Amino acid sequence: xxxxxxxxxTGFRDAFADAMRKSGLGQVAPGEVPTAGSLLRAVGGLxxxxxxxxxxxxxxxxxxxxxxxxxxxxxxxxxxxVFVFVRLATKTPVTQALAxxxxxxxxxxxxxxxxxAEANFIPGIVINVVSLTVLLVSILIRLPLxxxxxxxxTNDSFGWRKAKAKRRVLYLTTWLWAALFALRLAVEVPLxxxxxxxxxxxxxxxxxxxxxxxxxxxxxxxxxxVYGRLPDDGSETAR
Length: 239
Known about the structure:
Oligomer: single chain
Number of helices: 10
Radius of gyration: 20 Å
Largest sheet: none
Helix content: over 70%
Distance between the termini: 27 Å
Structural class: mainly alpha
Strand content: under 5%
């Protein structure tokens, strides 16, 4: 039997699919009607929302009021540590909290080593650059990342490439996610270069979870419009 050259090894496929199911997009079922509750779950629930916003908000408030670099970067670290202990005490998964504390500690170290408050945001800027690059490369090689993700989540693999409507939507949503990271960079990089830590902190909060949640919602609606409504037998294959 011929092997599909485009199919990844089973071990990798299973690991990738499992990772995607645990991500924000993985909480979005293509055929499900979007609700506020399901969107909240997709961004980590109420606890995940607090853990994502509070450290950055703490930095913004303390730095704006005191201009103290040490207190400003240590406050988010302290909050992140508290979040980990709360999760341990309540016997809930700590993976998200541990990932958060790693990023916050790295950001704090960069700020303290350089003596510049805006250096606290370097890891976030780097993440945006990498994310944008991955999305653009996936489009360039004709494997849009959102298509790959939903292909695994729906056990469709690369079947979406044969359906014109699905293909168009998945390319479009990949471009939209690329635009999200490009927007963040367009706003945050000039503020970083201007050494305006307060505005940078505020911009990161606004362009963080709220924008991410909004993009999840749009992605959900667009994908739902084509998944479950079209046959998967290639009848929509582009000529």
